[in-house]
Amino acid sequence: MGDSLDSVPFNPFDHRWRETLNGGAGLFALAVAIVFAFIIIIVFIIRIIQLPRLRQQIINDFNDGMVDNTRSVPTRILKVIIFLLLTAGLVGVLYFNISKMIHDSPKISVTLIKNDMAPSMLFCNGGSNTTRLNYTSGRYYPIFNDNSDNPESFSIDLTVIKGEYGVCQFLDGTNFLKPINASRGYYELGFTGDIPGIIVFIGDNNTNMDWTLPIPQGNLLSDVGVQVLDGNGGVIQYTETRHTALNDTVDRSFQISVIQGPTAAADNETIISVSIIEPRMVINQVEDPSLTLADLFSNVGGYLGILGIFGFLFGSSKMDPFGFVARFVFIKQDRTKLLKELGKMKGDSNVELSTWEKEEKEVDIDTKTSNLSNQAEFKNLLTKYYVETDYYEHAVKTPENVYINKV
Predict the structure, then answer these.
(1) Backbone phi, then psi, for 133, in 5-degree steps?
(2) DSSP state for residue 19 in the 8-state scheme
């Protein structure tokens, strides 16, 4: 995580990018899509090389789409302009979304979770750094208000750290395992020493924490709570905020407030008693990707829906019921199936083609098509399977057509 929330270089095995690409399912879907697109491109190139007829067909389709001599010059110019604008918009949407996915800082969601982690604590001399602060005893009570339900407490072991304040006593929270049901307990610790007071630090013992500084400091999201207790100690309470990064690392920040001041000490001895109350719940700030792969597909798909406007303005191309697979992959198999289905049409009452031979044998489509002498019957065939003729009927039969021809 470091000291910044900025993005990191792309690494598909990094947890951040696994989250951005929607985890294992997203990575699998992306891999399948890439493989599928690669296969389609390879098959297309092979078939174009093998079959000159397909090359010519693609050239003709491209020319028809670009030239489109069936439209007027103003319509063709407007069509090209809008097509270029839509294409530029699609490129812009892709660039914006991919750039956001790579460079934008993560989004933050906030939840409340049980306090299931102990903090690390440092207790130092509040006066001269030459006076040693001695630890006498300490215990942790899992339940704050009622010890009768949980009479068993846990002893606390402290270690020595030497720093700016001399010899300090340290509780490593990473080595102190709280019971599962201990969402709010408290710590009671006792110290001795001829000192005017004690400084209490509460923080997270992560790898970046330096406990030897005057004010211990970790990384950007690991603030340390500080409280000075005069005289004979007192009761303090801390609050905690956690930050869960995209790489699943957790940073913890603490704030301390005093609940009760120091109590009277015994004669001829300085006794320092410190009680620390922990919160039941903590605020957890969770990083989420600014944009995921699913969001990217959704945004691009939503923009592609605008292409419906293009079809609304200029109409769609001629209907083509035979896609890539029929044209480039299973060429012979789909051709055989088509001829078989057309052979069954002679029994279809919706398309009465009187010139079909009434013999019970396989129909040769090339021969039969050439024998279609009746224009109305051939129109029925096209209307049933290939084209929509509503606009044609309107254009050639309505009275407005006479006025258009005169103009």
Answers:
(1) -95, 120
(2) H
Q: Would you state the structure tokens that stand for residue 382, as one six-digit string? A: 């096209």
CATH architecture of structural domain 112-288:
Sandwich (2.60)
The pLDDT assigned to 365 comes to: 47
What pLDDT does residue 80 have? Answer: 81
Listed by start position, the domains of the chain span 1-105+292-317, 112-288, 331-407
| Residues 6+ positions from 404 with CB-CB distance below 8 Å | none
Instruction: Count how many Cα atoms sit within 13 Å of the Cα of residue 348 in the half-sphere of its side chain.
Output: 14
CB contact at 8 A, 143 and 187: no
pLDDT of residue 238: 93
Amino acid at 142: P
Residues 185/135, Cβ–Cβ less than 8 Å: no
Q: What is the mean pLDDT of each run of 10 residues along the chain (407 residues)?
A: 45 64 80 89 86 76 59 75 88 88 84 89 79 84 65 82 85 79 81 81 84 84 88 86 86 89 54 88 89 84 81 70 76 78 59 40 47 59 64 58 46
Q: Would you tell me how many other CB atoms lie within 10 Å of the CB of residue 264?
A: 8
Residue with tokens 């211990």: 216
HSE-CB for 298 with a 13 A CA cutoff: 5
Secondary element (H or E) of residue 124: strand 120-125
Calculate the CA 354 to chain-centre distance: 61
Q: Is 307 helix (H, G, I), strand (E, B) or coil?
A: helix
Q: Which residues have a Cβ under 8 Å from the Cβ of 45 and sit 6 or more positions away?
A: none
User: Are 159 and 248 spatial neighbours (Cβ–Cβ below 8 Å)?
Assistant: no
Under a CB-based contact definition with an 8 Å cutoff, are residues 381 and 351 in contact? yes
261, 310, 321, 389 from 315: Cα distances, Å: 82, 7, 17, 13
pTM: 0.61
369 φ, ψ (degrees, to nearest 5): -65, -40
